[in-house]
Amino acid sequence: MKKLFSFAVLLLSICLNAQDLRIPLDTTVVTSGSVSVKGKLIKYKAQTGTQPVFDKNGKTKATLYYTYYYRSDIPNRENRPLLMSFNGGPGSASVWMHIGYTGPKVLNIDDEGNPIQPYGIKDNPYSVLDVADIVFVNPVNTGYSRPVLKKEEKLDHKYFFGINADAKYLASWINTFITRHNRWKSPKYIIGESYGGTRVMQLAYELQSSQWIYLNGVIMVSPADYELLRTKSSEDFAINFPYFTAAAWYHKMLPSQLQQQDLEAILPESESFAINKLLPAVAKGGFISDSERQEIADKMAYYSGLKKEVILQHNLEVPNSFFWKELLREKSGKTIGRLDSRYLGIDRKESGDRPDYSPELVSWVHSFTPAMNYYIKNVLKFNTDVKYNMFGSVHPWDFTKNSARENLRKAMAQNPYLKVLVQSGYYDGATTYAAAKYTMSKIDPSGKLKDRFSFKGYRGGHMMYLRKEDLQKSNEDLRNFINNSSKNVGAAKY
Prior knowledge:
This protein has 494 residues and is of the alpha/beta class. It is 37% helix and 17% strand. The chain folds into 2 domains: 27-228 and 366-485, Rossmann fold (3-Layer(aba) Sandwich); 243-360, no CATH class.
């Protein structure tokens, strides 16, 4: 009987103390660190935790996991730039730029970005923490960020998962963050990678029009522009073509006349061909003359390393996915990476029109996942049993009513201080560097704002910063952009 009574007490205790696996709604952990950047020791605090998302009635709708790095050796932060960082997906955690690009720690990888063991992190000697405080934000269902639901309550997808909804709640969250940390007087920047490019285009205007937060800069890293991306339009096929030239050059598949030149010497040729010749030809469709079709196919073969026959078989509209499969089919039978075409893959069979998998992505997840989980628990000291979502469930994502380009234009027109920097890797076959340039040109058709745009290209892929050489160069470009756009240049007027 005593044993039965003890078991009953134990069972009751377990029931009383059991709880759902949930992330705390509003909590912070602060640690101290230091990193040597450009030969100077930078002391900083790392604040990590969760901050609620409030609706217009003050109800908690979600809580977002973030990490905020700020220099601890600066007593007055009024003129200190603040950089809000987002990744993309949609549905991707803010892990890639956090421990790959701008933060004080980076992955333990080789100089070309390949994973090496033991997994982990090391100091980032190129971090922009010397010139700006940085906040890495994880949207709902990424990282440890989660919606707040009552028992039996269903998730409101429309509140979070769409181009407009995403920017709306994130803008409100940023307002709360700026107020809590007394950063209203700071020069402000937002940076977004991949889908994050669309996110920050939309977010710039949402911050300005709904939260009255005016930015100094918007940075788009390998931006995904859904007014062009995967539309299968004449523009989509033609504008991506210079990427074929870059990838073919890397794998030594171009004619010797091109191959013996430097990459950046031949890309302008390919870009000119794509805009001035290929785009008009593809736009003609089946009504193009046979002589022009043959001429364009010859040039495409010349600049891409593909056979003229397969180009003609595609009616001059060669998808990127076919290029990844075809480029090395006869040479080695290997595929090339989608997000970074320097990477090689091995498919089940050499036939087919697209690769079985993305070799670069599995490599990146391979190195980032253990490093980030280790870093959060052991260095940032944030402990939870909740799973860190490298990629979270955010679909179906609402892509309708996409006015991101136009909204960035309006934000720039209304705010003379606002400047834009675009950074892309030449070997990115998903969101190509030429498409990023094209997006810049289409944001403002008048051309009156073009002097406030700048573009920087790198010899890597989608995450060009994984190459040591590009990690240094891209951070320096970002540092210069922040320094130049945060200067006092007089009244905000035309």
